[in-house]
Fold this protein.
Amino acid sequence: MSTIGDNRAATMGDTAPAIISPMSIQERLADLLAETGKTQTEVARHAKIGRGAISAIVRGRTKHPQPEHLFAIADALGVEPRWLATGRGPRNKDKGLSQDQREWLEMYDQLPPDKRQAARALLDPTGEYHVDDSADTNS
């Protein structure tokens, strides 16, 4: 068993190790808000629930939120509802990608093909990816 910070890894059947968070839902939600820079109001708006529902969790007044609220909040923050509720299982959706990584992928997906090539060339740490300038008809 490996240790990552205060989290411990646990094996669940034949699946990959799952992280178990010793934090409460209150702490997990507060940390997610701080990490993403999102306000309770922004998350509530995205989740289509009242800000009071999120506030009640963050303040510890609600320890077991309604399932529909839990799923909506998890979706708004890009995490798995099971992890948000219990601290068990994978934290992030999309095969463990962070919110920042998902945002980068969303931006990349919106680029036209020629801009995608330029972005790949710019971000390639090896410097081996080159843009095919022969296909550029705008010059």
Summary: The longest strand covers residues 7-10. Residues 54 and 133 are 50 Å apart (CA to CA). The chain has two domains: 3-94, 99-135.
